[in-house]
Amino acid sequence: MLRNTLGFTRRGFLLGLLVLACACKGESKGGAAAGEGGKGGKLVIGMSQCNLGEPWRVQMNADIAAAAKEHPEIELIFKDAQNDTLKQRAHVEELVAQKVDVLLVSPKEAQPLTEPVGKAFDAGIPVIVLDRAVLGERYTTFIGADNKKIGRAAGEWVKKVLGGKGKVVELKGLMTSTPGQDRSAGFREGIAGSEIEIAFEADMKWLEPEARKEMDSALARLSKIDLVYAHNDPGAHGAYLAARAAGREKEMKFVGIDALPHEGVSYVEQGILDATFQYPTGGREAVETALRIRKGEAVPKRITLGSRRFTKEDGKKGGEVIE
């Protein structure tokens, strides 16, 4: 009886190991290599973009398309959620159902996109998150610059040009997104210890029309504004237009983030903005990383991109590297 019991236990143990081994083998999550064949030998990459109403995001898609064009085996599928979180969740699920080989996603908001992105990763699809993070670790790699570092660099520059005191308007990006939170926190670190006061702050949701509307409110409330810090260049430009309409644009400086050559950098050259801080799109790096994943290469969990500051002087030498 005892022998039978022990034999049963041993068989049960071995069966358990077999089940566990099978489970582990089948648990091909998104860290694994993308499918070798794809569709007809192609590498199918699905890209879920949260919004193409911002020039920077249009540039991100253009950078992805340009990088992919150099590799005929890549087939791209673009989705534009038009600033609608529910639509972007549906897009991610559609791309998973289409069995893309690699999923790129630039989320509108962190929390609502975390679950569909995690399910794609759990289904074995490598997931590359761009610019805005999701919560947790259920993705393959994140590509983006250091928003807190950029915000801090902007704050330190503002502290220097204002001589350590003054009234500032902060026009924030969407504060349910991680870049908005980090650019704000970094800026406050940069001006810490000074007599600079954030006299007005508002969430302009990354959109120029919203920034202009909020700046109208700031102008109505404040008789003196020394500088506007906007979390992106369209926001800074919208603030400038509002100040110009009120005849007050010359009393203050304008600072933004993104530094696209045809947008923020051009605004600095024209004297509309006083400074802009680069936030690379990461589009090319996303395609290069997808190719590395397909080859079975290990990729880091986080790829951090560099940044530069552009003022009129810095622009002559291609921008000043932010250390």
Q: Brief description of this entry?
A:
The chain is α/β, with parallel strands linked by helices and 323 residues long.
Would you give an account of this structure?
- The chain has helices at residues 2-26, 55-69, 85-97, 110-122, 147-161, 178-191, 208-221, 233-245, 264-270, 283-294, 312-315, and strands spanning 43-49, 74-80, 102-106, 127-130, 141-145, 165-172, 195-203, 227-230, 253-258, 275-278, 302-305, 308-310, 320-321.
- By secondary structure, the chain is α/β, with parallel strands linked by helices.
- The protein has 2 domains: 43-145 and 281-304, Rossmann fold, CATH 3.40.50.2300; 147-279, Rossmann fold, CATH 3.40.50.2300.
- β9, α9 and β10 (275-278) form a beta-alpha-beta unit.
- The chain is elongated.
Instruction: Count the E strands.
Output: 13
Radius of gyration computed on alpha carbons: 24 Å
Name the CATH homologous superfamily of the largest domain: Response regulator
CATH architecture of the largest domain: 3-Layer(aba) Sandwich
Strand order of the largest sheet: 7-6-8-9-10-12-13
Overall spatial form: elongated
Count the DSSP helices.
11
Tell me the domain tally. Answer: 2
Helix content bin: 40-55%
Relative strand content: 15-25%
Elements, N to C (H/E):
HEHEHEHEEHEHEHEHEHEHEEHE
| Main sheet properties | 7 strands, mixed
Structural class: alpha/beta
What is the CATH class designation of the largest domain? Alpha Beta
Looking at the structure, the CATH topology of the largest domain is Rossmann fold
What is the typical, i.e. mean, pLDDT?
89
CA distance, first residue to last residue: 73 Å
Low-confidence stretches: 1-28
GO molecular function, one term: carbohydrate binding
Domain Periplasmic binding protein: 45-297
Keywords: Signal
Subcellular location: Cell envelope
